[in-house]
Write a structure and sequence with these properties.
heterodimer; A: 582 residues; alpha+beta; 7-stranded antiparallel sheet; 6-stranded mixed sheet; B: 336 residues; alpha/beta; Cytidine Deaminase, domain 2; 2 domains; 7-stranded mixed β-barrel; 5-stranded mixed sheet; globular; membrane (chain B)
Chain lengths: 582, 336
């Protein structure tokens, strides 16, 4: 009887609705554990194109991870086993008895697991925390310089030499003079490719981060100078002239790998995982340089996405414009089953590994971020909460020495919304000032030139114009004749927060607010609104902002019967839509 | 009060100085300035006679006459040729191995003369400090008195206001030379430096010097293996090997691809040796051996550049050059 299979990712969400294959990924030291899943994208005559998949999977997955099975939709377990066995062969993995086959019918979400002997097996639970308790994350960066001499007129010679150099470099990763130093928490460890030392549990326990990845252990790849191999002579200098027209081509290759190893792994095995991963990246980049252009600046980047418990790697051309690499990013989204309406694989999203920590790019500023986080709910019994997704900066009156008290609330709300688009990497544009907002409206012909510099109010419609003009963002406008009708729109607002997750601006005949979420009981009709108030005139003090109610839950009808929204005024709500962009 | 530890063998050296019977003797102290820790002296080197045959240090009576006799000292003071002493110190300093430096002066003189000569002694001490490679400013002055036979050690420090003074130190003898940990290293290199036709500054000498500068940076930041392992624990004698970055990337400015007219090939090895003193952290000895490698490398390259310039004045193009280094030994530096 095979043991139960443990699953760390949401397989149902990630597998496609129609027929298709998803590779199940795991690690050799934890059999029967599905760590993540990667969809197969390349097919040939209905079957996976193994050769094409092999190349892409090798780059995408950090070292140490392997394909341990396959999930097929609308097919049977035997086929799943066969497909998984074949890809493992192509990837040069040792043959295993622990392949997991999984099937799913196209009509339901339920997944059934089978062992290689086609016996059904049960699923048990497993957490990321448990996974990282026995797995360590290693990080290694190497900068390689290549110098190639050619005589003029023979460009094919360049390609041959480049291929040769790449091969030599790959071989030298495993030579006896190459060593690794791994920096543990209290001491460093030396690893060689062959070793005769016992197992050591070197890898320190590291705390998990907000991005739920442990501290990576830095690994340095070094060459040991050995006097046994070189002949020892006194220093000699001589000058060799070159033939006429000799050219020197230089290329640099930047390698950056992440590897997962068991915490109990022997040092030389960990080093071998690292050198294998480096070789894979080197060969891939080398092929691209050879085929296209030696001055390409290809760089590996690592990304942590919610769909996967471990990071993934992608190689981008640093000189290429973001819009030209959109196909690669779309492919990455598809492989991980990620929605296609939010950028997750732009270079700005990449993990920056500095010192012992992972940091994902956050913007520090003078404004507070996400002031609503951690607020307690306000007591709508049986209500369901839907709030925005992602981060924003809190804009309000009197910031940046701009005295907009009494008229600038909608402008501030717009700035908050635009900061959301910047922090979610849809744009790198800084939020416009009041003047710039007004100038935009004049530019598109919505207002007269005298509007610029005035203290006139703007409403949801004007905000939608500005968002469209400056960011290319379209918005939906919801209108209600009376404030009393607003709670009825809650279902629509909840759906907006659940699918779009963008902040909403409430305006109209009255003051403007930013709406960050709703708490709604659809049976009783009770509702509360998470309001971020731009009329605040104080300093960036979270405590004051929360205790003063400048950010907080407002019940549509308070316990004393007071209505938050005025029933004799109309309201327009601006619901910005995420652009369909990755 | 600082403690200066002298090697037991120094006793014999001091005996020889006293036995020579001269009224005044001056020389250098060889050892190690500990950074906040203990200071060590392991050897004495006599300042040689000047080119004109006179001594570096003489006794002058108050009337300015030289006096060679020990008796009738009266109000005598020392007169020392600071420049000569400093030049000797500079040359000795270059010959010393890693971990060792010129840490001060010794001086044999009548007590009374010594008391009158604080200023000149400080001046010489500072002059020596200026030309020797240890970064700290202070140097020791070891006073040797004959009647009674006694050694007193002082340190010459520079005050913030610029004046110098001699402060007393504790002087102890201990077995040092047998307790030194020795590190050796053979550092090899084999580089091919392209000479681009377009760059004006690509002369032979510039290429060598810029290569040397980058090689020095690599050495300074290299990890170190002792006896093939990462260093741990108290005992660290043995063979040192440097761990260099894998396939170090060279920064190439200018066109790519660039037209090259030739390559400067530099290949060879330098031997380095350094000493670790008792109860010092291994890192100090490791820094010392790196310094020794760098000093050796610099010296070799300087000599090669000089020869190249000589040769290029005689003929063009440049041809095969070689130069053999000289072997240094620690024992020959001690006063015999």
């Amino acid at each position: 009887m095979a043991p139960a299979v443990r699953v760390l990712c949401d397989l149902a969400k990630q597998s496609q609705e129609n027929a298709g294959v998803a590779w199940l990924i795991g690690v050799p030291w934890m059999p029967w554990t599905i760590v993540s899943s990667i969809r197969c994208l390349r097919y040939k005559d209905g079957d996976p194109d193994y050769a094409a998949e092999e190349g892409e999977l090798r780059i995408l997955l950090p070292g140490g991870l392997e394909v341990i099975g396959a999930l097929l939709v609308g097919s049977d377990a035997a086929k799943a086993c066969a497909v998984a066995t074949k890809i493992r062969e192509v990837l040069n993995l040792v043959s295993s008895n622990d392949i997991v086959a999984a099937t799913r019918s196209s009509s339901s979400d339920g997944i059934t697991f089978f062992s290689q002997a086609l016996q059904p097996i049960e699923q048990s639970s497993f957490s990321a925390k448990e996974f990282w308790e026995s797995t360590a994350l290693l990080h290694c960066q190497v900068e390689l310089g290549l110098s190639i001499y050619t005589s003029s007129g023979t460009s094919s010679d360049l390609k041959k030499q480049l291929d040769g150099k790449i091969r030599d470099l790959a071989e030298s990763f495993t030579s006896s003079t190459t060593v690794c130093i791994m920096e543990g928490s209290s001491r460093s460890f030396l690893a060689r490719s062959q070793a005769n030392e016992e197992l050591q549990s070197v890898f320190p326990d590291s705390a998990l981060f907000d991005s739920s990845i442990p501290h990576p252990l830095a690994v340095k790849l070094l060459t040991q100078q050995s006097k046994q191999t070189d002949e020892v002579i006194a220093p000699v200098v001589h000058y060799t002239p070159s033939a006429e027209g000799t050219l020197l081509h230089t290329a640099t290759v930047s390698l950056d790998v992440l590897c997962l190893v068991s915490r109990n792994s022997a040092l030389h095995k960990a080093m071998n995982t690292i050198t294998r991963a480096l070789t894979i990246q080197l060969e891939s980049i080398g092929k691209a340089l050879s085929a296209r252009n030696t001055s390409l600046q290809l760089r590996p980047y690592h990304f942590k996405v919610p769909a996967s418990v471990h990071p993934v790697t992608a190689i981008f051309d640093k000189n290429q414009l973001e819009r030209d690499s959109v196909d690669l990013r779309k492919a990455l989204h598809s492989r991980l089953g990620l929605p296609l309406d939010r950028p997750l694989f732009r270079v700005a999203n990449a993990l920056t590994i500095r010192g012992p920590q992972f940091i994902s790019n956050r913007i520090d500023g003078k404004r507070l971020l996400d002031v609503h986080l951690g607020l307690p709910r306000c007591g709508i019994s049986g209500g369901e909460v839907s709030v925005i997704d992602g981060s924003y900066e809190y804009y309000h009156y009197l910031q940046d020495r701009m005295d907009d008290k009494g008229w600038g609330c909608a402008y501030r709300s717009l700035q908050t919304i635009m900061s959301w688009f910047r922090l979610q990497h849809y744009t790198s544009m800084k939020e416009p000032s009041h003047r710039e907002i007004q100038a935009t409206l004049v530019e598109i012909g919505d207002k007269e030139p005298s509007f610029v510099g005035s203290q006139e109010w703007i409403g949801a419609i004007e905000l939608s114009f500005v968002l469209d003009k400056l960011l290319g963002v379209t918005s939906k406008i919801l209108s209600v004749r009376s404030g009393a009708d607003l709670p009825e729109k809650c279902r629509e607002l909840a759906a907006h927060f659940d699918t779009q997750g963008t902040p909403v601006m409430i305006g109209g005949g009255v003051l403007a607010y930013t709406l960050l979420g709703v708490d709604y009981n659809e049976f009783t009709g009770e509702s509360a609104f998470l309001i971020l108030d731009p009329h605040y005139t104080g300093g960036e003090d979270l405590k004051t902002i929360r205790s003063g109610g400048w950010c907080g839950w407002k019940k549509a009808v308070s316990d004393t019967g007071r209505e938050f929204f005025l029933r004799n005024k109309f309201y327009n709500l601006l619901l910005p839509q995420r652009p369909q962009a990755v | 009060m600082r403690t200066v530890v002298g090697d037991e063998a120094l006793d014999g050296a001091v005996d020889s100085i006293v036995a020579a019977g001269r009224a005044v003797a001056l020389g250098l102290l060889i050892g190690r300035l500990g950074s906040g820790g203990r200071d060590f002296v392991v050897g004495l080197v006599q300042t040689p006679v000047k080119e004109d045959g006179g001594d570096a240090a003489v006794l002058l009576s108050s009337s300015g006459n030289q006096s060679r006799s020990r008796s009738g000292a009266g109000s005598m003071a020392l007169s020392i040729d600071a420049e000569w002493v400093a030049e000797h110190a500079r040359q000795i300093s270059r010959m010393l191995l890693g971990g060792l430096g010129v840490v001060g002066l010794y001086c044999l003189a009548p007590d009374s003369a010594f008391k009158q000569s604080t200023a000149i002694l400080c001046q010489v001490s500072n002059a020596v400090a200026a030309v020797t490679s240890i970064s700290a400013q202070e140097r020791f002055v070891l006073q040797i008195s004959t009647s009674p036979r006694r050694l007193a050690c002082k340190v010459c420090t520079v005050e913030p206001n610029g004046s110098s003074s001699l402060k007393p130190c504790e002087w102890k003898l201990a077995k040092i030379s047998t307790n030194l940990q020795s590190l050796t290293c053979t550092y090899s290199f084999d580089a091919s430096i392209p000479v681009r036709s377009a760059a004006q500054a690509d002369t032979f000498k510039n290429k060598l010097l810029s290569w040397t500068a980058s090689e020095i940076k690599v050495i300074q930041s290299a990890e170190v293996l002792i006896n093939n392992e990462l260093q741990e624990g108290e005992n660290y004698s043995g063979d040192v090997q440097l761990l260099l970055p894998f396939n170090n990337k060279e920064v190439v400015e200018g066109d790519n691809p660039a037209i090259v007219t030739g390559n400067v090939n530099v290949k060879g090895s330098v031997d380095a040796r350094a000493y670790g003193f008792p109860r010092e952290p291994a890192s100090m000895a490791i820094d010392a051996i790196k310094e020794d490698i760098i000093a050796s490398l610099r010296n070799r390259i300087d000599i090669l550049c000089e020869e190249a310039e000589q040769q290029s004045a005689e003929q063009a193009p440049l041809s095969l050059l070689s130069h053999c280094g000289s072997v240094r030994s620690l024992s020959s530096l001690f006063l015999s």
